[in-house]
Amino acid sequence: MDVFLWVIVPYLCLATFVVGHFWRYRYDKFGWTTRSSQLYEDRMLRIGSPLFHFGMLGVVGGHVIGLLIPRGWTEAVGMDDHLYHYVAVIGGLLAGIAATVGLVILIYRRRTVGPVFSATTAMDKVMYLFLGAAIVLGMWNTIAGSIFTLGGEYNYREGVSVWYRSFLAFNPDPELMADAPIGFQLHALVAFGLFALWPFTRLVHVFSAPVGYLTRPYIVYRSRDDDQLGSHKPRRGWDRVG
Amino acid sequence: MKVMAQMAMVMNLDKCIGCHTCSVTCKQAWTNRTGTEYVWFNNVETRPGQGYPRRYEDQEEWKGGWTINKRGRLALKGGGRLRKLFTIFSNPKMPKIQDYYEPWTYDYATLTDAPAQEHTPVARPKSLLTGKDMKITWSSNWDDNLGGSAATLEHDPMLKKISDKVKFEFEETFMFYLPRICEHCLNPSCAASCPSGAIYKRAEDGIVLVDQDRCRGWRMCISGCPYKKVYFNHRTGKAEKCTFCFPRIEVGLPTVCSETCVGRLRYIGLMLYDADKVLEAASTTDEHGLYEAQREVFLDPNDPEVQRAAEAAGIPRDWVQAAQRSPIYALINRFKVALPLHPEYRTMPMVWYIPPLSPVVDVVKDTGYDAEDKGNLFAAIDALRIPIEYLAELFTAGDVAPVDRVLKKLAAMRSYMRDINMGRDPDPSIPAAVGMTEEEMYDMYRLLAIAKYDERYVIPPAHAEQAHSLEELATECSVSEYGGGNPEIFGEGSGGLTPIAVENFQMLQDRQTADSVASPADKSSRVNLLNWDGKGSPSGLFPPRQDEPRDEEGTP
After folding, report:
1. Which residues of B fall within a CB distance of 8 Å from A198?
2. For B111-128, what is the mean pLDDT?
3. Burial level of B508, CB count in 10 A (0-12/13-18/19+)?
4. Under an 8 A CB cutoff, do B217 and A34 touch?
5. What is the mean pLDDT of residues A51-66?
6. Which of A114, A123, A241 sits opposite B465 (nearest CB)?
7. pLDDT at position B444, please?
């Protein structure tokens, strides 16, 4: 069971995530968009969307630090457990609350504003379910686990993080996850479910974050593709002469 | 010198009768789809008026186009790259659907479905966004012919600039129509605003296009364009804009709006320009100097040096010849009667306008004087400050002198040609008074008044040997092979690449077999008789017979 939950399922989700993105990019570039609903409504969006997105950027940053950086490294730069815990909880809470409040505003908006609701696909709804569950469980772990230490003290940097790094190194150690509190286990499972769904939702827009905009020239010139005018390759026997 | 070719348009506003044929045919061709109900790549505004979307010209509010920053350099008025990325989650300057208008249809089915009742049934307006009943309060040409202008005219941003002199009295008012398409600017701020780099200017003909596969729906182009001519397709989540009907242009046909223009007021042709000078011209400090600065960017296709440089830049010989015959070059640089729309946005627009003389002529005629007499018209142009200043706000950033010169040329042409038409001796002093020769005046008359089809449209086609694979012909693959994607999951329009002609064909076909009020959930269940071509009997045309299973496969 442990192997199934903490080895097979995660790798299946990871494979879906990678292959799914490749497939989506290859066959559905036109569908690759944020599908913004700002045109319909922007009073609530103006507050909710930046709150959620900036919050999520913080959350993702926090996960990168928490999961990928081993405990030894932070100790090596003179950061003891207490200080790390302090920074992680404060930062995690701030980002988490921003993301949660933002998400609540966005979901409320999506349900109550007529045009936005009718532009919501079934996949959106499933995605919101997973995303919301992942965030709620994550907040629960932070608040109940790290602040009030319900269900005993647990240092995820000794357990979940080590397992995650072993997972990424293709040498997974399922025991570490099996020993983790149920909150962490659920959070991880829901998150992997979200990763599996990812390529088939609007979340793909995350990978289009336009950082290239900072360096490219303002005006883009493009030539009509001389090898391929129109949408097709010229048929055999119709080669250009000019 | 870096020679580039630009497909450009000039509209002669004196001839526009405001019939909206251009808008309607454009919409039929390009934006008759769900998601683009509110989108008019071509719209006709009555000026003075607020325009579409409402008050789009007020750049202090919308922050479109370019501006000169504190260091004296050209910068996006809506903020630079970092600011764009910082506000990407919610674009603070994006117009709301209400600034355009909430699209609607009518519940026509009630007219035939309603049970017998005392009162005649009514087709209620239904919102195309929510499907619910709605009250229509605005549209793309709500203030057509100054309708309702007593309540709305004061919001015209251009009129506001000169409003202390304007009296809102109808007997003193003036009016003309302003058809607008995308300006296909030399220095497009929409392209500069696009974080994904999806909007590009075609190197061959300067047409500004949105790459639908690279657009990610960040919406910065919509606020970046000062003319508000990039639109958000709310179903596909992608930006769409006027394409200058490039599939038609490529095979040498004029755009749909031009081809169908009843007044024959549109001109299409090539302009050669020096790409190296664009930035410098757009950075001209004095707003009044922008019109002249842009004219200086254009190159004379008859100049041998320009021809050599054009050849070096890979511009085909027949394109240079087309540039020599270009009506646009004649109107902008030879006769100098065409002016750019809002040069102060610094985007170097390439759809220019010949300002209307008719408001002046009307006033002179109403006073009982001879409205074709040069002296009367010249005096009226000088006396009628308000129309002239208003035109100047539109076309020359408020500089009255160029508008005055153009109107005097048009007035001179009127009087000069009248002498000829009446069989009198032409008066050479009339062209001389506006700095033209008699021959030039006659040529201008021929281009503006006779306006032969092949003189209005000088469009060199993309080369014939390539023509078979151009979009519009799309001969390689039968229409039915396209499509796919799953709208339920990824949103409308997802799936593989489909040529525009085929996509339009399929969407039109879908539409022709649908008449649901809002979202086409039951596309195949009903038939819109307005679009039905009379062939076959589509499923849903007749109710199913009771003894016979429902025919699923209708003949379109």
Report:
1. none
2. 91
3. middle
4. yes
5. 92
6. A241
7. 96
Please say whether the dihedral angle defined by the alpha carbons of residues B369, B370, B374 and B380, taken in this order, is positive or negative: positive
The pLDDT tens digits of the residues spanning B43-71 come to 999 988 899 999 999 999 999 999 999 99
CA B334 to chain centre: 24
Report CB contact under 8 Å: A38, B469.
no
Alpha-carbon span B88 to B146, nearest angstrom: 38
Provide φ and ψ at B241, rounded to 5°: -155, 170
Q: Are A44 and A112 in contact (CB under 8 A)?
A: no
Which B residues 76-115 touch A at CB under 8 Å?
76, 81-82, 84-85, 88-92, 94, 96-97
Contact B129/A at CB under 8 A:
yes
Q: Do A118 and B187 touch (CB under 8 A)?
A: no
Look at B468 and A122 and tell me if their CB atoms are within 8 Å: no
Identity of residue B373: D
- CB-CB under 8 Å, B94 with A38: yes
Kindly list the structural domains of chain A, giving each domain's residue range(s) and its CATH number in brackets, ordered by start. 2-228 (1.20.950.20)
Q: Is B192 at the interface with chain A, CB within 8 A?
A: yes
Distance, CA of B512 to CA of B526 (rounded, Å): 9
pLDDT of residue A82: 83
The HSE-up count of residue B329 (CA atoms within 13 Å, CB side) is 24
Shortest CA gap A196–chain B (Å): 15
Phi, psi at A11, each rounded to 5°: -70, -35
Residue B404 — very low, low, confident or very high, per pLDDT cuts 50/70/90? very high
Chain B residue numbers with beta carbons less than 8 Å from the beta carbon of A29 are 213-214, 497
Q: Is residue B55 less than 8 Å (CB to CB) from chain A?
A: no
pLDDT at A193: 94
Length of chain A: 242
Most confident of A94-108, B172-186, B533-547: A94-108
Chain B, residues 246-305, CB within 8 A of chain A, namely none
Dihedrals phi, psi of A92, to nearest 5 degrees? -60, -40
pLDDT band at B445; cut points 50, 70, 90: very high
The CA distance from B27 to the nearest CA of chain A, in Å, is 20
Distance between CA atoms of B9 and B27, rounded to whole angstroms? 19
Under the phi-then-psi rule, with left for phi > 0, alpha for psi from -120 to 50, and beta for the rest, what region is A161? alpha
Residue, of B546 and B109, whose pLDDT is higher: B109
Kindly state whether B495 is in contact with chain A, defined as any CB-CB distance less than 8 angstroms. yes
CA distance A5 to A86: 31
A 62-101 near B (Cβ less than 8 A): none
Average pLDDT (B283-305) is 95
Q: Which range has the worst mean pLDDT, B71-80, B122-131, B350-359, B489-498?
A: B489-498
CA distances from B460 to A92, A120, B309, B435, B457 (A): 62, 46, 19, 32, 9
| Six token digits for residue A80 | 């003891």
Q: Residue A31 and residue B485: Cβ atoms within 8 Å?
A: yes
